[in-house]
Structures are given as structure tokens and as C-alpha cells.
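Input chain follows. Return C-alpha cells only.
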Amino acid sequence: MARIESGSPRVLIEEESDSFLGGERLTGPRREAAACETWRVTIEAALNRMSKWLVAGSFAFAALWRRDAEIMWAMMGAVANNMLSSILKKMFSHERPAPALRSDPGMPSSHAQSIFYAAVFLVLSVFYWLGTNYLAVILGATTITSASYLSWLRVSHRLHTLNQILVGAIVGSAFGALWFALWHLLVHEAFDSSLWVQVPIILGSVAFGVACVVHISRR
């Protein structure tokens, strides 16, 4: 039997030598199904806790791979997107479905907003680099599907309502698309020619790194 505490960083798994359901011992396929369900819930809880880590790790990997101004711009956008989420939470002051787990406002979901910001920026970048082809479509669809699944985990663990997730996904997607467009239509050329544009972008990417460190220390 598994018990998941969604509001805690711990996943508590209680294993018993004998499994019962309504006083009846589970044997054969039923016992295997119960074991699979236990592992499924445990894995989902772990993925739910790690969702923002996955976003931060994706940016870190992209920074090591690309090492250019665009990834610094994307990291700066992640900071701005997070600030926007905090502002919207205070404006809406919308209660979470289970206030006992998390007492802060839940509208919009900052997890969904961060995940979809990164996902949309990545998808648009993939199409920009590779063009419209089968590989780009497969990568794009996989990215959006993964973002949707990670966001849905917030609903299944009662940390957000469906509306809070949807609003977070919409805001994050719109912000990611806007940030991508700003880079290619305006900022890229200015970055190459102006120190006054280079400095805030570099500082913004540094702020992203500092925010990740602070997040780690609080956990």
C-alpha cells in the first residue's frame, strides 16, 4: 500500500508482507496490479516534485549546448515569466483545491506557466532551426505532450484545479511565443550592436541561475 503526501517533499511508501483489500488477501494478477499501481503513484509523485527541476535542467543543458545570446534571452524570459506568475497570483488570490497542502494562491499555476513557457519557446526554436519537417513535428508534439502531462500531475495531486492549470498553460505559452518573437524581430539585432542591450540580457540569465540556487536552498 502506498500513501502519497502531496504537500510534502517526501513520498512515504508502506510495504506490508500481506496485501489486503476489504479484508481479502490479494493474490496473483490482483497483487501484481496493486504493486504496479503503487509504483505508478510513486513515480508520478516524484515527477510532480521534479517538474520545475526539469525545466531548470533543460535550460542548463541548452546553455551548455548552445552557449549563445538566444539561450541567455530565454533564461531572462524565464525570470520575467516567473515574476508575472507571482503578480497574477496576488491579483487573482484564487484558493487551491486543498488549502491544507499549500496555503498560497493557486491561480495561475506557476508550474504550468513555467513548463509551457519553456515548452513553447523550445518548440518554436526547433521549427526555426529545422524548418517544418517530420522531425520538428515529432519533437514539438513530444514536448507539448510532456508539458501537458507534467502540468496535469498538479491536478491529480490536488495542488491546483484544472482552471488554474489551464490559465497557467495559456499565459506561459503566450509569454513564450512573445519572448521568442521579440528576440527574432527586435532584440537579436540590437544585441549584436549595443552594449546596453547585452548587459541586461546577461544579468537576466545570471538572475535565472541565482533564482534556481535559491529555490534549491529553500527545498
